[in-house]
Specification:
single chain; alpha+beta; Heat Shock Protein 90
């Protein structure tokens, strides 16, 4: 899915992701975490990326991959956040909720990986 880099589009992609995860029969608790990760990664791409933002979801066997692509070659990075900071926790949430996450070598794709198993992510 490709969107214009407009904040209102984050909600659209959350809804589309939720529908797709229900279609794939992803357990509800994990689906909620995936939707949150999609929201955080897409928001980062809109705020810090360049150009069109693309979301790609793929499910192979018990493995779910979320990829968000934008035109900015500067990679997403976890950074320390003070307790009173209003922003900056998105990648921390991605790191906590996903099995693993990372950024492509060209810096344009940020991904998160989940395992789909009963009772586990």
């Amino acid at each position: 899915m490709a969107i214009a880099p407009e904040p209102i589009r984050v909600a659209h992609l959350r809804r589309i992701t939720g529908v797709l995860l229900r279609f794939w029969a992803v357990p509800a608790p994990l689906a909620q975490e995936v939707v949150l990760v999609v929201s955080e990664l897409v928001t980062n791409a809109i705020e810090h990326g360049r150009g069109t933002v693309r979301l790609r979801l793929s499910l192979t066997g018990g493995e779910l991959l979320v990829e968000v692509i934008d035109g900015n070659p500067a990679p997403a990075r976890l950074r320390p956040v003070a307790a009173d900071d209003e922003h900056g926790r998105g990648l921390f949430l991605v790191a906590c909720l996903s099995r693993s996450w990372g950024v492509s070598e060209d810096g344009r794709t940020t991904w998160a990986f989940f395992r789909i198993r009963p009772g586990r992510s």
